[in-house]
Queue: 2 jobs
Job 1
Amino acid sequence: MIEQALVSIENLAFVSALRNSTFMYPLVNAGHILGVSLLVGGIVPLDLRLLGLWRKYPVMVFVDVLRISAAVGLALAVVCGALLFTTAAPDYATSPLFQAKITLVLLGVLNAFAVGWLMKLRDIRSLPMRAPMPVVLRVGGLVSLAVWISVLILGRLVGYF
């Protein structure tokens, strides 16, 4: 039943047009890459700051700017990724690499919400600039780094296997 639905999605006219287009598929793929770049490019410096790098800069400078960049990147990557998924839905849906990637994306998003909530709870704005981050936030940053780098690697592997 699920496979029939996936095949139906794959056979939609706009999906077929996307898959066979000389320009649209590469543009959607580029949009996905741009989204991933904004996401990882925003989240990695923020995670590194949580882990203790760049202590001379207030953590909220990183949070205020980079979480917006990461959120926009995530939205773009999800929209473009969903379009790319439709072009070979049954194949992607049964790929263990793709399943692991999507699971980690969900874990990464949940971790981001948890870290944001913990920042509010711990009132990070009031911490002295050079003070180490609370352990729970350092752990959140480490989990985030591991998750998003793994998502990046899995995303590349999905295209090859």
Job 2
Amino acid sequence: MRSPSELALGLLRRARDDGYVVDRLAQDPAAPDWVIGFHAQQAVEKAIKAVLANAKVVFPRTHNIAMLLALLQQNGIQAPDQDVFLERLTPFGVAARYDRELDQSFSLNRERTRLEILALLDWAEAMLSNAKNGSAGSP
């Protein structure tokens, strides 16, 4: 069984992989918004879960970013600054992947998404690093 810190590092690596996809595809006009949105949502979900796991907080299997952000708050963990923007990515976790009718309702500012995801990944990495160095709770 993996330790919380091993789980956290694994989740952060996967979040960075999704972030890489967002960074590259956001600059490609041929890439569908829903694909970029899906990987952005996955990066956010995994990064927040990495921070929660590192703090030994049990979290549910969910794609709901608002719920994960609430868990941060409930456990005294400083949420990333862009939490309202991040919550908007939740529908890309499931609905936008399967329902083509929803494509119109999920508009995506690619550059903002790219920058927000990169900032979020830096936040998660800082949170894990701070916890490792004994100053958990703030980046």
